[in-house]
Every structure is written in C-alpha cells, then in structure tokens.
Design brief:
It contains 6 helices and 4 strands; from the N terminus they run H-H-E-E-E-H-E-H-H-H. By secondary structure, it is an alpha+beta fold. The protein has one domain: VSR Endonuclease (Endonuclease, Chain A), CATH 3.40.960.10. Helix 2 packs across helix 5. The protein is elongated, with a radius of gyration of 20 Å.
Length: 153
C-alpha cells in the first residue's frame, strides 16, 4: 500500500477539498520522517491523510458525518483500519477551518505520546507569515533589466 500511495507525490494532492489541503499543508511541516499523503486508497475507500511510518490516518469529518448512520459507518471503518494496524484520528472540519495550526499542534501532541513519534514532542506548527509587501503590478515581479540597473546607479 505504501508504494502505491507514494505515486500521489508530495506537491499536488489528488482530489481533496480545501479543508483537507489546509491541514495537509500544516502537517507537511513535520519532520520528513513523518510524511503525510492525502487520499490514500484502502479497502474500497480513501483515507483523508495518512502517515505510513506511524500508521496513522487523519479523517476530517464535515457535517455529513453527524448523522447516526454516518457515525456507525465511521466506527466500522475505524475498526477495519485498526485491524490493519492503522490508528484513526478524527477531527471536525469546522475546527480545521477555524484554526488549522491549532489542530495540527493538537494532533502532533497526540502522536508524540507514541514511542515511534518522540521527535514530535518538540515540534510546533508554524502559522503562515503575512506578506510584508504585495507587488503593485506584475512588472514588480520581473527582475530588473540591465538598462534599469544602470539608471538607478
């Protein structure tokens, strides 16, 4: 399964929603020994985010998971994954949308309790830094031409 999942690449996740991409972006800040792969197929379904070395699946549950039937399906799925040696952590989509950094840090603290993830005890997710200056036009993004450098000197 790990080798099939590696085909997803680390730069462009397959069909994910914006909430999954947001959390994936922050979890990818973890040390490289803890790679996160989005949308890994398993048992006829897909795990939202999966870390093969830790055998941890993170499922991001939106409002469709609030029904009694969906909760029962989730419990069955978690049990199936557990039988495969995969631990499932479920987070609410509304929490990820509200504060992805806090969710990533909360997950890291939960993972760090494991002996195989002790390196995460000191890891902290970094929030995005705001841009100090946005370009006023596309011309500001282009490198200066030799004649422009000469005029400035």
């Amino acid at each position: 399964m790990w080798f099939a999942a590696r085909g997803h690449g680390s730069q462009h996740p397959p069909a994910t929603n914006s909430t999954e991409r947001r959390l994936w972006f922050f979890l990818r800040q973890m040390p490289p020994t803890f790679p996160w792969i989005p949308q890994v197929p398993i048992g006829g379904r897909r795990m939202d985010l999966y870390c093969p070395p830790l055998k941890i699946c993170v499922e991001i549950d939106g409002s469709s998971h609030d029904t009694a039937r969906a909760k029962a399906d989730d419990r069955n799925r978690d049990e199936e994954l557990k039988q495969m040696g995969i631990t499932t952590h479920r987070v609410a989509a509304r929490d990820v949308d509200a504060d992805s950094v806090a969710v990533a840090n909360r997950l890291a603290r939960a993972f760090a309790r494991r002996k195989d993830a002790e390196a995460l005890r000191t890891w902290t997710c970094r929030p995005l830094a705001p841009a100090t200056r946005l370009p006023t036009s596309l011309a500001d993004l282009a490198p200066p031409t030799p004649s422009a450098r000469t005029r400035r000197s």
